[in-house]
Amino acid sequence: MTYFDTSTAHVVALHGSASSSKQWQSLVAYLEDRFTVITPDLPGYGTNKETGVLPGLAGDATSVISEMERIGEPVHLVGHSYGGAIALKIALMRPDLLASLTVYEPVMFSLLMGANVRHMNLFGEIAGVANSIQNSILSDCPETGMKDFFEFWNGTDTWGSLPNAVRDHLTSQAEPVNRNFVRASEDKTRVQDLSVINVPTMIMTGLESPAVTQQLAGMVARAIPGAKLAMLPGLGHMAPMEAADWVNPRILHHVNEVEQYRVTGISTVRWVA
């Protein structure tokens, strides 16, 4: 792959629920020689104490939009899981701020609403996890809900193998995770709304991931004109952290293709008019 002078190009990477900007440390190291990489904390995580006033995913998108506006030029936006859903929302709200879009299994659960019986069944599965977290908070036993959350994404009986410090940290994230579920579930975006997204887009999904996120990835890829779908065998929902050596090169390849067109006007990918 040929690389171009991208020293002025920016990549903004958004983390998933129960995480923080530190999730992307390996991506920062992988891209830093070619791009300026910004990894903001989403509301409720790390140093970001904001609580957006807008309903749905827009409530958490606004703080990211403010940071992107300060950059002063369109950015390559990357997102994982909840961060991927926020990235999609930003693409709808402020398309002028994006040079490209790359998302790994965006959990925009509203896309499943009212579609068909299978989609509603998948929504019911993730709603069960959301209800478990909410009920565990109300009963002052957040560890129960976070155990269900963690094992939904990582597999049955995985919680007990975690070090105590990790379990304690995840348990402390119950409140922001619950808010993320509320935001994602109350959002009004439907799959047909994504057809207006007109930036080079790549969607990634792991073939060992839960059925709901594989389904969402496929729906998003089909809805966005010209989007590419990368289906990655052997990888699960947490691959951006657990298999970064597989995910990061795909992010770089997609972003570099967009920069190639920006610099040379030549492209081999189908999303260029």
CATH class of the largest domain: Alpha Beta
Tally of contiguous helical segments: 10
Sketch the major β-sheet: 6 strands, parallel
Number of spatially distinct domains? 2
- Trace the largest sheet across and list its strands: 2-1-3-4-5-6
Along the chain, the helix and strand elements come as EHEHEHEHHHHEHEHH
Overall geometric form: globular
Helix content: 40-55%
Report on the structure:
- This protein is α/β, with parallel strands linked by helices and 273 residues long.
- The protein has two domains: 10-110 and 189-264, 3-Layer(aba) Sandwich (Rossmann fold); 117-184, no CATH class.
- It contains ten helices and six strands.
- Strands 2-1-3-4-5-6 form a six-stranded parallel β-sheet, sandwiched between helices.
- Helix 1 links the parallel strand 1 and strand 2 (36-38).
- Helix 2 (58-71) crosses helix 3 and helix 4 (117-138) packs antiparallel against helix 5 (142-154).
- The longest helix has 22 residues, at 117-138.
- It starts with 9 loop residues before the first strand and ends in a 9-residue tail after the last helix.
- Residues 269-273 have low confidence and may be disordered.
Secondary structure blueprint with pairings:
Elements: E1 10-14, H1 25-31, E2 36-38, H2 58-71, E3 75-80, H3 82-93, E4 98-104, H4 117-138, H5 142-154, H6 164-172, H7 174-186, E5 201-206, H8 211-223, E6 228-232, H9 239-242, H10 244-264
Parallel strand pairs: 1-2, 1-3, 3-4, 4-5, 5-6
